[in-house]
Amino acid sequence: MRVYNFSAGPSMLPLPVLEQAQREMLDYNGSGMSITEMSHRGKVFMEVNAEANALLRELMGIPEDYAVLFVQGGASQQFAAVPLNLLVNGKADYIVTGNFASKAYEEGLKYGDMAIAASSKEAGYTYIPDVDKISFRPGIDYVHITTNNTIFGTRYTSFPSPEAPLAADMSSNILSEPVDVKKFGLIYAGAQKNVAPAGLTIVIVKRSLLGHASPVCPTMLNYAVQDKNDSMYNTPPCFPIYIAMLVFRWLKNLGGVSEMEKINREKAALLYDFIDNSGFYINKVNKKDRSLMNVPFVTASPELDAKFVKEAANAGLVSLKGHRLVGGMRASIYNAMPIEGVKALIEFMKKFALENK
Ligand SMILES: *Cc1c(COP(=O)(O)O)cnc(C)c1O
Fold this sequence. Notes:
Shape: globular
Helix content: 25-40%
Structural class: alpha/beta
Distance between the termini: 31 Å
Radius of gyration: 21 Å
Number of helices: 9
Mean pLDDT: 98
Low-confidence stretches: none
Bound molecules: pyridoxal-5'-phosphate
Oligomer: single chain
Largest sheet: 7 strands, mixed
Order of helices and strands: EHHEHEHEEEEEEEHHHEHEEH
């Protein structure tokens, strides 16, 4: 019996993808081997790698002059890789809208003269600063943003347009709604929220920005090296790349990212409308900036929150405990969460509210 899993990450994968992976586990495509057992340089895996790359380009409309890299180390590794690759003048600006954005900034400080151009920390990260009002320092190499704030449940609905390239952590909302890749110099995302099992990190980078890596940049983190080697400088994360390919096929069959966005908007609207009208649950995020992927909420007390999380789990609605930094609950409703899961959660919330008023 599968539960509805609201985990923030690693999180749900589409059921048809898991079923196909299960069917193919012992013998991938007539090779007589599992995809996990074969050489990454063999024809069979090379085709998987190429298809995953091509599908991601198609789904996101990634222009030819951008490299698409499949690397390891998670989004957190990119907090260092970004400055190590992109700093030329030695300085960059960060917009700090949550815990991961703050970590990216802290890591960046090791490599250059970094500044916080705007932050929503003073309000508990419950909103996204007005991007049109932010001024950036002259001569910076990039502006770093976090497009969806997984812990606090906010997302950018428009992006700043500085002169310097925009570098974005899209770990928790990549492929959830269309983005114009041309607006960004660099996009990165850990795969374990919307794409694949943990172990794969996607990097999309404009090739004209490559070639300036710091002399101390580890070879493995050097985007130009990864690009030149088709992400096969060393052994890539083969199994997550294969699952990513299946997820990309699933997304394409569904109608692509704009179709996915419609479903995501419908799911999020159901949940937010219910919360706002419940008189029992509260979401503190500025309405305009609410995430389509992560929905934090609280009841009147931490004791009641704990009771909610426990009883929900017993009802097959799991991993609803909020991040330790904010407490309460958080429903992560990534691409793979079916609308039925959101409806089941709302039914449970109604019942719980009646019983605990
Ligand atoms: C999960 C997450 C991270 C951390 O990802 P790792 O792959 O575990 O390093 C970073 N940024 C955002 C926005 C995230 O949601």
